[in-house]
Amino acid sequence: MRKQRQALPSCPYIAGPPLISAQGFWGRQTVLNQVIDELKNSTAAKHIVLFGQRRIGKTSLLHQIRRLLPKRDFLTVFFNLQDMAKKPLGEVLDELARSIVDNAGLKDFPVFSYDDNEVLFYTEFLPQLYKRIPRKRHIVLLLDEFDALDEFAATNLSDNKAARAFFPFLRRLMSEEERLNFVCAFGRQAEDVSNYEATFKGSTLCPIWVLDEVSTRDLILQAEKNATLHFTEDAIERIMHLTRGHPYFTQLICERIWYQVRRPDINNIPTVSAMDVEKAIPLALEAGAQGMEWLWGEGGLSPAERIYSSALAEAADPGQEIAHANVVRALASHTTRGQHQEVDSARQYLVKRQILNEIRPQVYSFEIEFFHLWVKKHKPLSLVKDELDKLNPRANNFFKMGMAVFDKGEWQEAIGYFREALQHSPTHFGAQLNLGLALQRCEKIDDAILELEKAYNIDHEALDELVIALLKRAEVYSQEAKYDAASAVYNHILSLDPSNELAKQGMNIVVGKQKMLSQPSEQTGSRLASKTVDALQPYLPLIALVIQESVGKDWFLEANSNET
Predict the structure, then answer these.
(1) Half-sphere exposure of 472 toward its Cβ, with a 13 Å CA cutoff?
(2) Which of 55, 168, 213, 293 has the fewest CB atoms in 10 Å of its CB?
């Protein structure tokens, strides 16, 4: 009888999706106990706010709360607001109501058509729900991704969209419905959310940050517990130093180590060294790109925070502390527009968000070295500096409108939008650059050069477009025989771009023509004399008459005969 092959244990690390079951979830016992105790022991409705940066594990925490609350005593409903901001409030209420009914397992529950003024939700849905759910069973709404609503609250959405209407709806729900409990998750500091004070005043706040050292070590050693890897103490220390107990980053790098080092022979368990950790870092940076972008992008860090983070990552080596003045110098080396108040003050917000650590006054480092490595590799300042244009949203909206018509070839209309953007933000590089390009398309070469010079002064990235416009201007001057003017333009180009071959060639041609004019050869003189005689030919009879009157006919005839 053939002996069955023993199955290999699976990877114990889960990097990416929220942890719905207990598998892969570590730590957070203090905050879990706090939330569950408050929900269990309170006689009044509870409103609890979890806040922490993206990818820190808030969604997983909500699922664990749901898993741990006894179902006989609690009806828990997880509801994600991530894609709700632009939907009408009525549509969001319909989805919320369906989630509640589905989680309660209620059959034949009435279906309502919810309007945007909330009436049916209060007058029909909730009374029907309360009839079907025993009063001793607490209803807990676990609301995730509140930031998604706040991101759009200041945009031009209509008042019936959830970004504007859900917060007032929730305020009423929290103040009037004593049977409803709320646990809400935010990806930012609570006070940074525009509707926070009005909606969540008096709520219990629970900050979510990295795991403690014991929990981090337990997480790393999961591969030892399922007998697939051993870790040296140096390897454990290196992982903890890299991630500082951030659950997502720790899971991510341990997952890459596991797939890199593991062996199919269950009787030969490999040992992970500090060198193995170093080899896994590039793999983990690539594997975690999507999660990193979620932490970095819109709704994660603001444009000013992204710019400052990129400048610090470029100026400092991973793990190194750096003075604020050196960060400013790194930014100035890329663009003159970096001296912006929002960028300068971004460091305080980054410290508050626990992206940066203020070692001492005016000296900073990244809280998490692994994130520093990712920013340094994938978000160089040469790319991120364009975020400066987003610091003034109104100006950037005009710029976007200008680009929309620019791409359609409607240059004149685009010029108007770009000028409007520059009225709101004079250093908006995209608007300044494309204003020059639009003027160039309209054959307004002198105006185009003027605007492209301004763009170059904002950011030297405009060099190529400016040089192209100047070359056209010099060529026109040369064709018009304005050689001094052409020479001045070519000299200006070479002062900007000393290696520009087209400018060198154009300058050589202009210099040659200038020499030809200032030092004519004998052959050139003969050609000029011949052209002069040809030009005088129609006037010879008149000249002859004048000479005849002056010196006599016979002398003129003799002279003319000799000339012939």
Answers:
(1) 15
(2) 213
Q: How far apart are alpha carbons 305 and 342 in whole angstroms?
A: 9
| Distance separating alpha carbons of residues 309 and 359, to the nearest angstrom | 16
Give the global pTM. Answer: 0.75
Decide the pairing of beta strands 322-323 and 204-207: unpaired
Does residue 384 share a domain with residue 323?
yes
Are both 263 and 203 inside the same structural domain?
no
When mean pLDDT is compared across 280-284, 302-306, 396-400, the lowest value belongs to 302-306
Domain with 38, as residue range(s), is 29-207
Residue 75 and residue 200 in one domain: yes
Q: How do strand 271-272 and strand 180-186 relate by DSSP bridges?
A: unpaired
SS3 track for 438-492: HHHHCCCHHHHHHHHHHHHHHCHHHHHHHHHHHHHHHHHHHHCCCHHHHHHHHHH
Residues 510 and 557 in one domain: no
The pairing of beta strand 47-51 with beta strand 363-366 = unpaired
- Nearest CA to 436 out of 462, 410, 460 is that of 462
* Residues 92 and 127 placed together within one structural domain of the fold: yes
Q: Give me the chain's average pLDDT, please.
A: 86
d(CA 304, CA 340): 9
97 and 244 inside one domain: no
Per-residue pLDDT for 438 more than 90?
Answer: yes
Asked if residue 543 has pLDDT above 60, the reply is no
Q: Which phi and psi angles does 77 have, rounded to 5°?
A: -130, 115
Give how far Cα 257 sits from Cα of 147, 246, 274, 474, Å: 33, 16, 11, 60
Taking only the tens place, the pLDDT of each residue in 51-78 is: 888 889 999 999 999 999 999 999 999 9
CB contact at 8 A, 453 and 466: yes
Does 179 share its domain with 279?
Answer: no
Q: Which of 165, 181, 207 is the last residue of a domain?
A: 207
Domain contains 24: no
- Sign of the C-alpha dihedral computed for residues 304, 305, 306 and 307 taken in this order: positive
Give every CB contact of residue 542 below 8 A, 6+ residues apart in sequence.
none
